[in-house]
Recover the amino acids of this structure.
């Protein structure tokens, strides 16, 4: 019986120790090394020379541990229609940049399937974006 009690106490202490290193799943509670780029400007030059260039270099050069580009609004249509943009998105995905699109926007613009085919995650972003903003998570809006 004493062995069971001792083992229980040891496991409880270890559990508490391990939990000190646990990170919540809430995106706002993560460390500040994950940059979100909210991409709303559908100008292809801005996409290439700012959004894509910064995301790729930011990850490759270690400025950020993780980068997620959030496609929002008219950029969903641009991504689905523009060959150069699609090519750059594939390059970014291959380099480890995460790319996700607002499902409401993509559905309303009729481009959801095209985005999914490119390997882009499509999900509702309203609540996650709100949590990112409220928590002070790094957010670059273009």
């Amino acid at each position: 019986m004493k062995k069971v009690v001792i083992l229980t106490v040891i496991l409880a202490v270890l559990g508490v120790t391990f939990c000190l290193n646990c990170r919540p799943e809430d995106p706002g509670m993560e460390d500040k090394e994950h940059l979100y780029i909210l991409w709303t400007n559908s100008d292809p030059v801005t996409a290439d020379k700012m959004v894509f260039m910064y995301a790729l270099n930011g990850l490759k050069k270690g400025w950020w541990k993780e980068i997620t580009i959030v496609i929002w609004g008219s950029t969903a249509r641009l991504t689905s229609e523009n060959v150069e943009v699609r090519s750059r998105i594939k390059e970014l995905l291959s380099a480890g940049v995460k790319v996700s699109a607002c499902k409401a926007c993509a559905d309303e613009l009729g481009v959801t399937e095209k985005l999914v085919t490119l390997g882009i995650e499509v999900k509702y972003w309203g609540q996650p974006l709100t949590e990112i903003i409220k928590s002070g998570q790094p957010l670059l809006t273009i």
